[in-house]
Amino acid sequence: MDIDVRGPRFGAAVTTLVLAVVLITGSAWLLAWQTLAFALGAAGGVGRSPYGWLFRTLVRPRLGRPTEFESPEPPRFAQAVGLAFAGVGLLGFTLGADWLGVAATGAALAAAFLNAAFGYCLGCEMYLLVRRLTVRAE
To answer: Which terminus, N or C, of the chain has the lesser number of Cβ atoms within 10 Å?
Structure first.
């Protein structure tokens, strides 16, 4: 079943805010929260993430009917990519390699911002590229 495109974009906006605060404060705890949010989105789809729940319960009822839908697989893959970057960032911050924490968190922030501000999902594009490459290889 396809999903409302506004949900992942809302999640990207919240993620952008959270990751910006992580970079400003260097908070490993807040990055751990974001890592968990990515993990839930990767495991169960964006609707199962905390931000998906917020969108579904607080935001979507106040919006009009969705006019655009997308397959859930690309955003789910994007959550897994975000999980990888957040996990590396979390390792960096907790092991004292702050440069690694900042670099990985900054990369995740850039991707989230692109989705939130412009509707361009880097992880989704990666998913489509991987699909094209694997279909050709078969």
So the answer is: C
